[in-house]
Amino acid sequence: MTSKQRAYLKGLAMNMEPVLQLGKSSVTPENTAAVEEALVARELIKINVLQNCADDARQMAEILAERTHSQVVQVIGRKIVLYREGKDDKKRIILPK
C-alpha cells in the first residue's frame, strides 16, 4: 500500500464511528471472528480499544491484521483502522494509484 493510498483511507476513516470495541480480554478468537465479519461487510473498519485493556494498541492491530489478512492503516491512541480489499464491486473502495 502506498502512502497516497494510506492517506486516502485515513481520510475516509476520520469520520467513521468505531464498529468494535476491544476490552480487557484483549484479542480473543471471538474478537478476531468479529473483526473478520466486519471486514467482510465493509472494507474499512475502525476499532476502539477501551482503557481497561492493558495491551498495546499497535501490537493488537498487528495481531488482528495478521489473523484476518488485512492491513493496518493507522493506530492513533486507542483507535485502530484496518483495511482489506473486498470482493463486492458495488461497495468497493477505489484507491488512488
Explain this structure.
- The protein is an alpha+beta fold and 97 residues long.
- The protein is built from 3 helices and 4 strands.
- The chain has helices spanning 3-14, 29-41, 57-68; strands spanning 20-22, 44-49, 71-76, 79-83.
- A 4-stranded mixed beta sheet has the order 1-2-4-3, with helices on both faces.
- A hairpin with a 2-residue loop joins strand 3 and strand 4 (79-83).
Overall, the morphology is globular
- Described by its quaternary structure, the protein is single chain
- Rg (C-alpha, Å): 13 Å
Work out the strand percent.
15-25%
Helical residues, percent: 25-40%
Number of helices: 3
Provide the fold topology.
Blueprint: H1 3-14, E1 20-22, H2 29-41, E2 44-49, H3 57-68, E3 71-76, E4 79-83
Parallel strand pairs: 1-2
Antiparallel strand pairs: 2-4, 3-4
Task: Provide a concise account of the structure shown.
The protein is α+β, with helices and mostly antiparallel strands and 97 residues long.
Which terms summarize this structure?
alpha+beta, 3 helices, 38% helix
